[in-house]
Every structure is written in structure tokens, then in C-alpha cells.
Amino acid sequence: MEGEPTLRLRIFDLNCWAIRYLSKRRQERIGLIGDALRRDSFDLVLLQEVWSEQDYSELAVKLAGCYPFSHYFRSGIIGSGLCVFSRFPILDTLLYQYSLNGYPYMLQHGDWFCGKSVGVGLEVTAPLLSLSVQLHAEYCREKDAYLPHRLVQAWELAQFIRHTSKAADVVLLGGDLNMHPEDVGIRLLRGWTGLQDAFAEAACFEGCKNGCTLVPDNCFTEQSELQPFPLGIRIDYILYKAISSFTVKCEELKTTTGPAPGTDIPFSDHEAVMATLHIQRQGQPGGATLGTAELADVVTEARTEVGVGLRAAQRQRYSSGRMAVLALLLLLLQAAAALGTLAGLGAEQPFPKLSFCLLAFLALGVLVLATGLHLFHTMEVKMLHGTEDQMRMALRALQEHP
Questions:
Q1: Is 278 one of the catalytic residues?
Q2: Is residue 344 part of a domain?
């Protein structure tokens, strides 16, 4: 930035929906994404749901000429799916994995196995702190069992930004946040960090109506997800703010609007988001934050939802603990009966041996499963309780030091 009064920064953000063996026409779409990025040169590319490292490697080879710097963030069992490509040198990287990320027994959703995270790259521009993010999916808006986990993730992300952005002049966040613009998690994230929404601040917008990134016209979109929202929903964002003596303005925001150029398929089930930002050195940092009272209301609302999740987790911990105790008692009774038979203290074995063994194996399986669930929900209770305590301290700080 030295010697440059204004830096024009072009950003591309996309949830690629590249799940190996499951996503439709994955390899073809990855190739189309690479071709588009090579053809339309951006400064920074933030991608989510690139679950296969082979896909990332193919993209890295294809884009090496125009994006010489890149990084793939690894976490969880199947990976975070996050990667970044940059025209500028990446000085440092960091991955933070959220403390809560769904349930391991919800195999059909799979969020727990990928280890949802925030990937951070500190770049030489400005310096620019860029974050590629994905939060837990919603799945069912009417009965959103994952809302407390997503709020914990939003809170941890906000705290992470507050504590890691001090060395940067500009913070840029892009990703699939799986929340609508007016949801409490988005209001909490933006209010606590001061991040601005590129869609709301853009001087010029071109793309899907209301900036939606899940739209009914996309052939890969699950139409059932959009039943209450016939025009689509906006869950992919580019957020930004200036930290020190810089201002950031969004000159233009675009979304893709259907099939990739020259093809019959879109890049993904999500539309891509593209922003053009102007970063300029000035006397005071730009951006606006919520007022104290409004921010306190948002934190209170989020804390209430986390409290609901905490009570649900406590009930699940109690149920799984009780199941483990009952399975253990059954095993002990079977062991006592078997020992009594072997010692000749009782009558002949009342059950056939095969049935007796099957019952023992069943009780042992229930014991192991229930114990695992009890330990998991114990951890969940601790994390939700810890987040609730942090929010309580934040509210007290807002009241004492508005």
C-alpha cells in the first residue's frame, strides 16, 4: 500500500459443492471453476466445500500462472473444504476449528466429520487479513436443532476476528455462513466485529434478486430448501472492515446467475459472489458498528438461544448416562447369573447359550454407544456453558463500558 493512494481489490467467493462420489458432475464443475478463474483474473479467491485434495491440487496447477500463492486448510476426518488462491504473497496461515460442529451420529449431514473451521491468511496487501469461512448447515429452518451450535460458531468467529485482526489494516471475510442476513448469528457476528456487508454497501449490484445465492433456477438446488423462500435465500457473504487508518468501499458486487458461460450447468448449487473493493489510506478507519443498546439486544438474543441448546444438551447427557447405567446393570446381572451357574449355586442356565450371548453383546454395544454419547454431550454442555458465560461477561462489559 505504500505509495499507492488506492488499491482496487477483486474478490471471488464460492461454495463449490464438491463432495467426492456424491456431488453431481463434480469434476466437470471443478474444471469450469478453474477455467473461469483463469479467464477472469481476480486478486483473491475464497472457496469452500473443496472436499478432495486432488480437486484442490488440480485447481492449483491450473491457476498457478495467475494465482501463484495458494493454501488448502486441513481439518477433521474428511477436511475443512476451505482453500484460498491469491495474486499476492500469503505471509502466514492459521486454521481455527470450532469447538462445536454438529453430532457424530447424524451421518446423513456429515458436518461433524469435516470439522467446520475458519481458515485465515495474512497477506502482504495492506496487510490484509483474509478469512475463508463455513458454518454449520441449517437443514431445517422450522426445527433447527443446530442453531445453538451455529451461534457458538458465529460467536467464536467474532471473537477470533477481534483477537487476531490487530496486526492487520483490513479484514476480509468470505464464505457460506448458512444464515440469512437478519438471523441472530449474522447480526451477532457483524455487530460484535463491525464487519460491513458488501451487498448492503455496494454502489452497484448485478446478479440474482436480493443478492440470493441459493436460487430456484439452479438445477442443483434442492427445491425443498426454498419452499418458504420462492425467490431464493442469501447465505453466502463477503464482509469487510478497516482496522487502522484505511477506509474500504465496495464499488461493485455481482453474483453468477445460472449456467457457466458456454455450458448447460452452473458452477455449483450456490451462486458465486464477486466484489470489487477500494482500499484507501485515510486519517480514520471506515465502517460502522451497532450502538451499545442494539448490540446488547443481539447478544442477549443469542445467549437465550444458546441457553435453550444448553438445556437440550443437558437432557441428552442425562438420557445417555441413564441408558449407559442400565446397560451396565444388565451386564452385571448376566455376569452374576453366569458365575452362579458355573459355581453350581443356581439352577441350570434358564436361557439358551446363544440367546444369553446375544443379549450380552447387545448390552455391551448399548453400553459403549451410550457412554460415547454421554461423553460427547458432556463436552457439548461444557462448550455451550462456556459460550453462555462469555456472552454474559460481554453484556456486563457493554453495560459498564458502553
A1: no
A2: no
Model confidence pLDDT, tens digit, residues 292-303: 888 999 999 999
Q: Is 112 within a domain?
A: yes
Pairing of strands 205-206, 6-18: unpaired
Read off the pTM. 0.86
* Contact in structure between 70 and 86 (CB atoms under 8 Å): yes
Q: What would the pLDDT profile of 212-221 be if each residue is shown by its tens digit? A: 999 999 999 8
Measure the CA–CA gap between 398 and 402, rounded to whole angstroms.
Answer: 5
Give the β-pairing of 196-197 and 128-134: unpaired
Per the structure, the count of domains in the chain is 2
Residue 114 has φ and ψ, to the nearest 5°, of: -90, -15
Q: Note down the domain range covering 125.
A: 7-290
Tens digits of residue pLDDT in 186-231 = 999 999 999 999 999 999 999 999 999 999 999 998 887 788 888 8
Distance CA 311, CA 71 (A): 39
Any domain includes 307? yes
Asked whether residue 321 falls in the same domain as residue 173, the answer is no
**180 and 305 in one domain?**
no
384 and 235 share a domain? no
Same-domain check for residues 23 and 71: yes
**Active site residue: 136, 149, 270, 374, which one?**
270
If asked whether residues 72 and 216 sit together in one domain, one would say: yes
Measured distance CA(243)–CA(241) in Å, rounded: 6
User: 325, 331, 299, 329: which is closest to 397 by C-alpha?
Assistant: 299
Peptide bond into 127 cis (omega under 30): yes
